[in-house]
Design a protein that fits this description.
Layout: H1 12-24, H2 35-40, H3 46-55, H4 61-75, H5 79-83, H6 87-93, E1 98-99, E2 102-103, H7 104-121, H8 124-131, H9 140-154, H10 161-166, H11 177-187, H12 212-220, H13 231-244, H14 253-261, H15 271-274
Bound molecules: iron/sulfur cluster.
């Protein structure tokens, strides 16, 4: 049986190896990560592009990158201006767009809602700041209020299945991977991967963007025993990561995620791969099936 988060035993050796991994897997992998679109965006559009890129970050990496590139191509060189423009123009430029089960009407509803919010408040950052309760241990309340606000702005379109998937809500129990990813990009200090764009937010309150790769590593490192990669597991893994770095628990998230994305961990014992894996000594995956 897999160990529970209470059994996670962080030690200086693991932290040292994760630091080494972070040094090896960082900005050099941007080309295969949706955050690259935020890095490339013009200044006023950076936050918006980050939100759109994270919202479409579901499915395989190749399809994600292609869909984000297509969406931004359709929006033109200044996505910020396009999104605060007329809803009719947004619907027109999105005609025929689809990313998996999010179709043109779902994405148009998201963009129109974001445009209304930005016209009212000036930025997504202000919306999150207004929604945040600083005494909360994390940004779940802020995320819930932000999602509620987007749904209000979207009107009846917020009932669409695709819109509800694009704008996840903590009350649905999902891991909130994409909104947590967006917050990681905006809040963590700029390190060549994350943007550090929002000041006044605390990296220690972030929740890990729990994808299939990080969930696997969370299990085999003993951070969680949950089979389902849900919000409870994301919170358990985040608590375990805080034992490694209480002020910056998501410090190793990008490196662990990309270890899986690039096949440097196959999520099963492969002697040629595991023998050079920096966290092999802590991996609890049975050596023999
Ligand atoms: S030891 Fe093997 S299975 Fe375990 S994390 Fe490393 S590469 Fe993955």
């Amino acid at each position: 049986m897999a160990p529970s988060s209470r059994e996670f035993r962080p030690d200086p050796g693991l932290r040292r190896e994760l630091e080494g991994l972070r040094g090896r897997i960082g900005a050099n992998r941007l080309g295969s990560d949706p955050v690259v679109f935020a890095h490339a965006a013009e200044r006023q559009s950076t936050e918006l592009v980050a939100f759109l890129a994270s919202s479409l970050a579901f499915g395989n990496v190749k399809a994600i990158m292609a869909s984000i590139a297509e969406l931004l191509e359709r929006l033109g060189p200044r996505p910020f201006d396009a999104v605060i423009g007329r809803p009719g123009d947004i619907k027109r430029v999105l005609r025929g767009f689809r990313h998996r089960w999010a179709g043109e009407e779902d994405v148009a509803a998201l963009l129109i809602a974001l445009g209304r919010l930005i016209r009212d408040l000036g930025s997504i950052e202000v919306a999150f700041r207004n929604a945040d309760v600083p005494s909360e241990p994390n940004y779940l309340v802020a995320m819930a209020q932000f999602a509620d606000r987007l749904a209000t702005e979207a009107g009846v379109a917020a009932r669409r299945r695709g819109f509800r998937f694009l704008v996840s809500h903590p009350s649905r129990g999902g891991a909130m991977k994409r909104m947590n990813l967006f917050l990681r990009w905006m809040v963590r200090p700029a390190d060549g991967v994350d943007l550090g764009w929002w000041t006044g937010f605390d990296p220690a309150r972030l929740i890990v963007p729990l994808d299939v790769h990080v969930a696997f590593h969370g299990r085999v490192l003993g951070m969680s025993r949950r089979r389902t990669a849900d919000l409870t597991m994301a919170l358990e893994v985040t608590e375990a990561l805080k034992a490694l770095d209480p002020t910056d628990p998501l410090r190793y998230d990008f490196a662990l995620c990309h270890l899986g994305i690039h096949g440097e961990c196959q999520k099963r014992r492969v002697p040629s791969i595991c023998s050079v894996c920096p966290i092999e000594a802590w991996c609890r995956l049975p050596k023999r099936p």
